[in-house]
Amino acid sequence: MKNKQNKIGYYGEYGGQHVPEKMKKRLDNLYDEYKKETRKEEFKEEYLQLMRDYVGRPSPLYYAKKLSIKYGAKIYLKREDLNHTGAHKINNTIGQALLAKRMEKKKVIAETGAGQHGVATATAAALLGMECEIFMGEVDAEKQKMNVFRMKLLGAKVNVVKEGQCTLKEAVDAALGYYIENPEVFYLLGSVVGPHPYPEMVREFQKIIGEEAKKQIIEQEGKFPDYLIACVGGGSNAIGLFYEFMDDKDVKKIGVEPAGKGLDTGKHAASLVMGKPGIIHGFYTYLLQDEEGNPASVYSIASGLDYPGVGPEHSYFKDIKDAEYVAVNDKEALDAFRITSEMEGIIPALESSHALAYAFKLAEKQSGKTIIVNLSGRGDKDVEFVASLN
Ligand SMILES: Cc1ncc(COP(=O)(O)O)c(C=O)c1O
User: Fold this and answer.
1) Could you read off the pLDDT of 27-64 as tens digits, one per residue?
2) N or C: which end of the chain has fewer CB atoms below 10 A?
3) 236 in ligand 1 pocket by Cβ < 6 Å?
4) Predicted model pTM
5) CA angle at residue 60 from 89 to 336, to 5 degrees?
């Protein structure tokens, strides 16, 4: 069975709602509304129509011929970078914004790391006529200036968070704090993290990636791929690609985490590879922790991967070995960023470059096999930062 939720909101022992009683009621109400609305044919139709006409789905499955010749395996790229706003995030924000609208919410709030989820939320809010407020760490806001301008152009208010490390964890802290104080807003979470029902809801809106990829690879290759590879921050683009293939055990699923400056330096964000179970932001999962068991300081060159926790369903997949998790460092990701740009004319997001880097290493050892890499986003947002490194 594909759905591994043995108890609603839990994936094995992971997930749950580790939140105050008051918030539990709101989350349960959100789940009820989500179930009720998404069951309706008219909801499904509106979502799919927007996916097609507004986002530009299905995103192509592109055979990267030159990379395939260079590395030996057949490398296909699932082109989420071609979606409106430039990443997979829009699949989820349109879904949740449609739900918010049906719940008669006037305002949505969201956290963002690289700014892609913030832009996608601001876009969905503009489209559906809702107020929007985004929380973003100061370090990320500085690194991803263009996305801050984009959010403002789209009519959103951007709150720059100047706490702790000033990155994604603090942005989620601030957004959750605001949500607790302002029960009337809709919290539009950007990955398969947070308390139930977010991991389930976000997965359901992202699984369209794998559903399309399955049809496309059959059309092009006449068979399933040998490997699926995706980067893992919170884990939404990875689960989006993997989910439709969960019953196909011969298709190996590999999630790639950021090894930053190296797994032995303490400067990384490889939660599944190096963490141990703990609680963050209202759910139980593999977590990078300090000596006191609090979420540790983390680092990645890719702002969207810079999070000490990970989606609870991935924690479960790791334990039951339904997926494998590995890590790739900054340098390897940067090399893949440059190689893909030069050889295929596609500038990938730094997040997606982690998946590419691992795919290249694997392809060298697995000549003749077929690999689908989720190209979760485009690298336009990263060009200025990468240029500053030279
Ligand atoms: C392009 C891109 N890929 C991947 C991620 C990581 O998120 P997730 O693991 O939820 O897909 C982000 C997050 O900002 C992103 O912008």
Assistant:
1) 999 999 999 999 999 999 999 999 999 999 999 999 99
2) C
3) yes
4) 0.97
5) 70
